[in-house]
Design a protein that fits this description.
The protein has about 230 residues and is α/β, with parallel strands linked by helices. Helices cover about 35% and strands about 20% of the residues. Strands 1-2-4-3-5-6-7-8 form an 8-stranded mixed sheet, with helices on both faces.
Length: about 230
């Protein structure tokens, strides 16, 4: 399906979003939150996968305030990584959450939608999924190997909808001390479920990527699908 445009809440313009539609409708929607590489082939593939599970998938361009249409390849050399980190460092994450809030609102009223919306984020998007869980009315949120979440635990009390965190044990961006803080900070939280996958690295669920792990990804994706089916219908 062609990209759509969504108006930013602050009136600063419109941003594009990739949309993948399921065969059956009405359907719940999943806002797919990008890694640091933009809405690239991986994010489109993941969105298509969500649509194959029976959900409307919508992946907004969150780098648009810096550069529109970014699509980087993490397996294509250091220059791609350098640009990705520069874009991540230049991102106003509070504005990104506002854009995600606008995307959630848009997804609720899309043709063929049933009004229920979840988010699913990866890497940078995994961090933003946690922020979205605390700051928006999304019906569920899923974070894959989110970075820097240990610094956001003060917002955990605002999380009122189900949240899953998928953490890679060997993630160099989320070292053991950070993992321990997350586990302790969310211990006993009524809505948060944290899973640590032994022996795998960051991006273990990126199919075809250098850290892809079929077993861990299958288990994580099964937990994600179960939550989405329960919450979104």
């Amino acid at each position: 399906m062609p990209e759509i445009e969504i108006a930013a809440a602050d009136g600063s313009g419109k941003f594009a979003a990739y949309v993948a539609m399921p065969k059956g409708r009405p359907a719940g929607a999943v806002v797919m939150i990008q890694e640091i590489f933009g809405v690239n082939a991986t994010m489109r593939q993941l969105s298509d996968w969500a649509a194959e599970m029976g959900f409307i998938a919508i992946s907004p361009d969150l780098f648009w305030r810096q550069e529109k249409g970014v699509q980087l390849d993490p397996d294509a050399g250091q220059a791609q990584w350098d640009k990705a980190f520069k874009l991540m460092q230049g991102m106003d994450q509070d504005k990104a959450v506002e854009d995600l809030r606008s995307t959630i609102a848009h997804a609720r009223r899309m043709e063929g939608a049933n009004g229920k919306v979840a988010t699913m984020g990866f890497c940078l998007g995994g961090r933003l999924a946690f922020m979205t869980a605390a700051r928006t009315d999304a019906d569920a949120n899923v974070s894959y190997y989110g970075v820097g979440i240990e610094g956001l635990l003060g917002e955990a009390g605002a999380i009122k909808a189900p949240l899953i965190l998928h953490i890679a044990e060997k993630d160099k961006f989320v070292p053991p001390e950070a993992q321990a803080k997350i586990l302790e900070g969310l211990k006993g939280h009524a809505q948060a479920s944290v899973y640590v996958y032994p022996g795998v690295d960051h991006a273990f669920a990126r199919m075809g990527g250098h850290s892809w792990d079929a077993r861990a990804a299958t288990i994580a994706n099964g937990r994600t699908a179960e939550l989405l089916a329960k919450v979104l219908g």
